Amino acid sequence: MKSIKVNGGKKLNGTIRIDGSKNSSLPIICLALVPDKAVINNVPNNEDVLKMIKIVSSLGSKVEYKDNTLYVDNENLKTGDVKNELAKEIRGSYYLMGALINKFNEVKIASPGGCIIGKRPINFHVDAFQKIGIEVIENENDIILKKGKFKKVQINFEKPSVGATINVLFSLIKNDFETILTNISIEPEVIEVIEVLKKIGVKIELINRTLKIKGTKIVKDFKHTINSDRIETGTYLALGSLLGNIKIERPNIIDNILVIDKIMEYGAEINIGSTITIKENEFKHIKIITEEYPGFPTDLQQIFSVLMLKGNGTIVENIFSNRFNSHLELQKFGANIEVINNLALINKSELRPAEVNCTDLRGGMSLVMAALLIEGESVINKVELIERGYPDFVNKLKKIGADIEYIN
Ligand code: EPZ
Fold it and tell me: Within 10 A of 399 (CB to CB), how many other CB atoms are there?
C-alpha cells in the first residue's frame, strides 16, 4: 500500500501537461494484436497501461514501449490463453476477448477487475458475443470464448456501454456479414476506437447510436496517436478552479464542452486556446447529473464534488450503482455530505486535515484535491489506485507548487 503526505492550503501556480487517454489506450493496445504490426503514440505511462503491456507481451507479441510510443509486432503471438494474473486487476483486459477471437478459435481469460464503483457485470458483452456465433463459457474465475460460424444479426444494447460496444466491435473485425448495433455508447473513447478500426480496413457507418459494421479478411497494420485524456483534463481544470492559476498543455477540449461549461458556471476564470489557463475565482452552487456522453461524465463527479465543499452542490449518479464511497472518505476531512441512494447533497464545510484511504481511481484523486485545499498535513493511503489513471500525478502536482510527497 502506497501513501502520500499533503501539506495543504497553498495556492497552486504553473503548467500541467495532459497525457494520452487511459480509456482509449487500453482497448487500442488490445486492438494492436489483430494486424501484423502497430505503432501507437501518446500512450500514457500509468499503471493500468503498464499492466496491459505486460499481459499482451505474455501472449508472445513483441512489445516495445519507449517515450510514450508503443511498438507491437505479432509475429510470435502464439496463444489466446491469457494466463497472466494481471488480467484480473484491470477492467480493460476484457478487450482481449474481442481482439483475440480474431486470431484464435479459443480465447481464455480471467474475469476482469476494475474500480469498485458498484456492480461491474459483463452480460452485455457475453449476450452479444453469443448472438454473433461465439460460444461463451463463464466459470467462477475465468471466461472461455469459442469461435463459431458467424451469423448475420442485429444487436440492440439494453443501455449504452463503453466496454460492451468496443468489445463487440472487436469481435466483428473479420465478420464479413454486415452487422447492425443499436443503442451503442458514443463516448469519445468509442469514437477513437472506431477511427482505428477504419484504419485497419473495417467498414463502419455511425448515425446517432446506430452503427453498421462490415468486417475485413485483410487486416491492415496501423499507426495511431492517442487523444489527450479528457478525464485528466477535467481533473486539472477542477483543481485550477479550486486552488490555483494553472496552465494546461495539450488539453482535450473537444470532448469536454460540458465540463468546461460547468467550470464556467462554478465561477472560475478560464481562458481557452491551444492551452487552457484556469484561475480560482468566486464560486457558485453547481449541480451535476451524470449521463452517458455527451452528458456529464461519471468519471468526473467525484472530482467535482470537491469544488462543492467551498460553496455547495448536488450530485446525481446515473451510471454506476455505487460511486459515493470516496464521499464517505471526504467526510473524514469534515465534509458536510449526505448520500441518499444515487444522490449526494454537499454543503459548505469546515474542513480539517485527516488520514484517509483511496477507494478507487477518481475518488482517490478527489481526496488529494481536498487535502490540497485544507491547511495542515493530511495523509492519503492506497494511492496506487490513483496511479492507475493519473500518470506521474505527484510530480505533476509538485511542479505547480503542491507540498506533496510519498511517505512509503
Ligand atoms: C468505462 O467502463 C470506463 N473504463 C470507466 O472509467 C467509465 O466510467 C465508464 O466506461 C463509463 O463511461 C474503461 O474504459 C476501462 P460501461 P465500462 O460498460 O466499460 C453497466 C475510470 O475511472 N453494464 O459503459 O466498464 C455498468 O455496470 C473508469 O477511468 C452492465 O450492466 O463502463 C454501468 O452501470 C471507471 N453490463 C453501465 O453499464 C455490461 O455488460 C456503464 O458501464 C456492461 C456494463
Answer: 14
